[in-house]
Amino acid sequence: MDKKRAKGLVSIVGLALLAACECDTSRDDSNKIEVVEDESLRGTAADFIANAGDRVFYAFDKSNLSPEAEATLSRQVDWLKQHESRKVLIEGHCDERGTREYNLGLGERRADSAARFLVNHGISGDRVRTISYGKDRPIAAQGSQEEIYRMNRVSISVIE
Prior knowledge:
Blueprint: H1 3-20, H2 45-51, E1 55-57, H3 67-82, E2 88-93, H4 100-120, E3 128-134, H5 145-152, E4 154-159
Parallel strand pairs: 2-3
Antiparallel strand pairs: 1-4, 2-4
């Protein structure tokens, strides 16, 4: 598969997951999308998103992990253990409420809590990086105000 087609497939899978996202932290992940049986996709970002999930949602003004967040991160641990050459960048995001500085700190605490979970469950720290975008890079811009807030209280794991 050429790079252009692979990038297109990654975009399509990502958009499909975003469109299907209920942004309810209590959602059932048992209906996750499985990657097509194309062996060339094994170990790719699309494979990670489809089989592990890339988003962990948080309550308002919180950085602690819910049971649903831990379930997603456990799948990420399993995936990363199967693909030992891959690294992950965890992005911390916040909704628009609060100051820029406060939200940068909160986004950092969110990313760090997800990273700590991965490391505490056997992923080498040199494979995990974090960054906080605070409220500077909103994930969602459409929907009811509360839906937008919920979708933006997130950490996103990006395969590198």
